[in-house]
Amino acid sequence: LAALQGAVRVVVAPVESMTVVPEGEVTGVVAAYRKATVAAEVAGRVLRRLVEPGSAVAEGQVLVELDAQRMILNVQQALAQQQAKSVRLQQARQDLVRGRRLFDRGAISKDVVDDFEFAVELAAAELQAAKAALGTAERAQRDSTVRAPFAGTAEVVHVQEGDYLNPGMAVATVADFSKARVRAGVTAAEAAAIAPGQRAIVTFAALGGVPVVGSVHSVGRIGDAVSGTYPVEVWVEGEAAARLREGMVGAVNVAMESTDPRPAVPRAALFRQAGRMQVFVVRDGVAELVEVSIGKGNQSHTEILSGLSVGDQVVVEGQFALRNGAAVEVNQ
Predict the structure, then answer these.
(1) Which listed residue, 71, 231, 276, 295, has the most CB atoms within 10 A of its CB?
(2) Strand (E) or helix (H) holding 8
(3) Can you spell out the DSSP letters for 32-45?
């Protein structure tokens, strides 16, 4: 009879009040806690390479020594210039004292005294310039020794003994894996449910699927312009971090924060039409097309923020054969 009358057979489910907890599984990529490519700050030839790839290094440890002979000579020259300028300032001050005495006796004019005062100011400025030049020369001498900026591992050493380096040329890449960063992107709804400090489980196929425990360190507030996702960073520490390598890909699971119960429907009830999220609601044997606004979701249910009430019957099977106002028969 239903077929003769044109009723469409459908399966329905009620709108329920529940707390929808997203599973929170996203793909994450490992990065070192700290990584730096140390570069030469002065020009010079490499005299000694003191680390090899894979070597553990301490903060401040010498990685490479450059030939500093010219820099030492520059320091000596700058020091001599400073001493000369210091003597010149002392002489100018003595000349000024004698000039003021002569002026008091009327032996010289005020213009001559002004010249003595100007000579003192000029000598003082030249001494300051000489001190700055000495500081620059000493800094260049110190920079001839290239050191590790932090404790870690010299992952790559880019130079050999005998190489000539210009400022800015890479010397070594140092990475710190005392912690590891696992970076992932989540939707806006997922980002709203994640908070720093939450426990996170990361599973790496490269490690045989053994779960690694970490914690959420940060949840970004600015979305990626291309993917539309928000950055989440999980930190892994201790022995677990020592097993990770930069670029490894893993599945990140975060226990999302729960919220107050809200109306929710099975995911199968939702479909997008003309750019809008919609469902069919069965009322008095008739299918009514309803536009809804959705919130968080998981594999089974999705929150309904507006458009439905708890107890409404929504179509979960057969809706694609329906139109607004169509007669339906509910399968029991």
Answers:
(1) 71
(2) strand 8-14
(3) EEEEEEEE-SS-EE
